[in-house]
Specification:
Blueprint (H helix, E strand, L loop, with lengths): L2 E6 L1 H8 L7 H8 L12 H7 L1 E8 L21 H21 L3 E3 L3 H12 L9 E8 L10 H6 L2 E5 L21 H13 L2 E3 L5 H10 L4 E2 L17 H9 L4 E3 L3 H4 L14 H15 L5 E3 L24 H8 L4 H19 L1
Parallel strand pairs: 1-2, 2-4, 3-4, 4-5, 5-6, 6-7, 8-9
Helix pairs in contact: 11-12, 12-13
Length: about 350
């Protein structure tokens, strides 16, 4: 089964946390044992390959100084100005380009041709078959873009998906602090430029007001790469039923986050892992499918390296190598093989074939 994970902070973790995805997961864990201040590592390229992950949305993410990433990493380099955010984002672009230059089994997915090359490599058989791992660049937080007119430069560098918010940015409110003004004037201008360039808009982390404004204003493809159902976890960080239905109407895809606090209401980091199971994951996916009326708009966007670790992901998952276990839970819920294959990766592939 070809698995797509629509949200991993690979460059941020490599450059700021010294978690290079080229290292074996066992080595990453050994280097941080026994305290695991940032959580037990769960992501590496070798673990992805073991688990059948063929494509990931690899982020450009950096932490703003006025609201640092909440994982206790005081040594992180943070930005205070647009120029600083731009520089840090370009460093991450360079990191991804070095990865694909140095490893012939990695591909930077920028269009249908590279997407199809990656997918086809997983269908090849025989002793010489070498499945590729695709990296599709997703900008999480548009503060990296110093002015909307600069967006074309980021597209030329390989970015295909832009999420205007992580927290509040110059472009819109973030969901963490709730709706205030929604999109700024620059935010509307950013959407205009993105539409002209054919980029994909990621609504994740945007406030509800900004999300609804964007759904009304943006003519291009829309997704939520890593967001769960607010009906099950009632915070604005998750998607309301209205948002879910509107994304479905736009033929977008919603990726389920595998962080226990986003899966079970009231869960806090450090609570017993046993409180959240694959049935909890399927409940969020099923909620999306039931609201939209089909299984074509649900996927995975794990965020597995997003500030938590193996102790705070659903039982019995231990790393990204185990994502395929979600397929079995979907089958037990009654999903057909075709729908399971779609949710595990096919829906993202078909969406990208339509939109890249």
């Amino acid at each position: 089964m070809f698995i797509v994970d629509a949200h991993l902070d690979l460059a941020y973790n490599a450059l700021q946390k010294k978690r290079d995805p080229r290292r074996r997961l066992a080595d990453l864990r050994a280097a941080e044992a026994p305290d695991y201040k940032r959580g037990i590592p769960t992501v590496s390229f070798s673990a992805m390959r073991r688990g059948g992950v063929g494509l990931v949305f690899a982020t450009l993410f950096n932490s703003p100084a006025n609201d640092p990433f909440p994982d206790g990493s005081d040594e992180d380099e943070r930005y205070t100005t647009p120029d600083e955010a731009h520089r840090l984002g370009m460093q991450q672009i360079d990191f991804y380009r070095r990865l694909v230059d140095e490893d012939e089994t990695l591909r930077l997915v920028t269009g249908r041709a590279t997407l199809d090359e990656v997918v086809a490599s997983h269908a090849a058989a025989g002793p010489d078959a070498r499945p590729l791992l695709g990296l599709l660049l997703l900008m999480e937080g548009a503060d990296h873009i110093r002015a909307p007119e600069e967006t074309e430069r980021w597209r030329e560098a390989g970015v295909r998906v832009i999420g205007p918010a992580w927290d509040d940015t110059r472009y819109c409110d973030g969901a963490w602090r709730g709706s205030k003004t929604g999109l700024s004037a620059d935010g509307f201008r950013l959407l205009d430029v993105m539409g002209d360039l054919g980029l994909i808009l990621d609504l994740t982390h945007m406030s509800e007001k900004a999300t609804l404004q964007a759904l009304d204003a943006y003519p291009g493809p829309i997704v939520a790469t890593h967001a769960n159902a607010r009906a099950l976890v009632p915070t604005e960080r998750q998607l309301s039923d209205q948002q879910i239905r509107l994304i479905g109407q736009r033929d977008g895809v919603i990726g389920c986050v595998l962080f226990n606090a986003f899966l079970r209401a009231g869960y806090r980091k450090g609570d017993s892992k046993s409180l959240v199971t694959l049935d909890t994951v399927v409940a969020h996916i099923d909620h999306v499918c039931q609201l939209i009326g089909d299984a074509r708009h649900a996927g995975i966007g794990s965020d597995l390296d997003g500030g938590f670790g193996a102790a705070d992901i659903p039982t019995p998952l231990d790393s990204i190598a185990d994502e395929g276990l979600i397929a079995g839970a979907l089958r037990e819920r009654g999903y057909s093989e075709a729908d399971v294959a779609g949710i595990m990766g096919g829906n993202w592939v078909e969406f990208l074939r339509r939109t890249l």
